Amino acid sequence: SEFIGLPSLRPPLPPAGLPTPALGGTALRPAMLSILSGCRCGGADDEEEVLVPSVDAREAVGLLRRIATQDRRLREEERRKQKELQKRTDEAKALKRAEEEARRHSQDMLQKVREMQKAFKEEQARFEQLRRERELLERTAEAKEEEGRKLLEERERWLRKTAVMAFLKEHGFSGVSCSKKVMMKTTFPLHVAAEAGNAKMVDMLIKEGADPDQRNSTGKTAAQVAQAAQARKGGLDDAHEDVLNVLAGLGRARLGGA
């Protein structure tokens, strides 16, 4: 049989770190690769060269294609792993950026909350200050109002006492509850004021201590004296009607005939 060499069909060696491509399930050894290339086997000391038969060219081409396919698959797998690694790296970076953004947002929100709390405390302090000032003004106004009321009452008492003293002096009485005799009849300041139709003096005498139930020597009260005086004028006297209204308003008058 004829032996030929195929140096042009020598398959390339696999990259470093990768397993030697398999042929029919068996790893290709250097000796097997030499068979594919049709090289001579033997050492330098061999007496004669031994030629090994070369494989069929189509089988060699198929083997090379399988090796190229496996290499392409390995490279694709490597690219896929690189893409997956890059994807995970990008996701990790995006997650880190999101965490940093969330942390900054949280810090901003915390700062805003602190500012709002500070503003609320300041507003609350201003409100409390305004409340204290309002209470002070109200107390001051109440005190002034009370002082004014007391001054008015004091002035009213002074005017009343002055008017009563002048009335008592004019009619010869020594006090609001003291009596005097006129033509063998005993009368009192309140009866004199009621008979005269002086409703204002009747009111002042009562406030100064005069008794509206006090009876004169004829057994009449001030209201009965006013009724008798009104009857003598035909019952159309408004002055005596005012006296009766003052006495009736006190709830002490006992109305009767003259």
UniProtKB/TrEMBL annotation:
Q: What Pfam families does the record point to?
A: Ank
Q: Which UniProt keywords apply?
A: ANK repeat
Annotated ANK repeats reside at: 185-217
Q: What is the top-level taxon of the source organism?
A: Eukaryota
Give me the ranges of the annotated region Disordered.
72-104
Note whether Repeat occurs among the keywords.
Answer: no
| Stated name of the protein | Uncharacterized protein
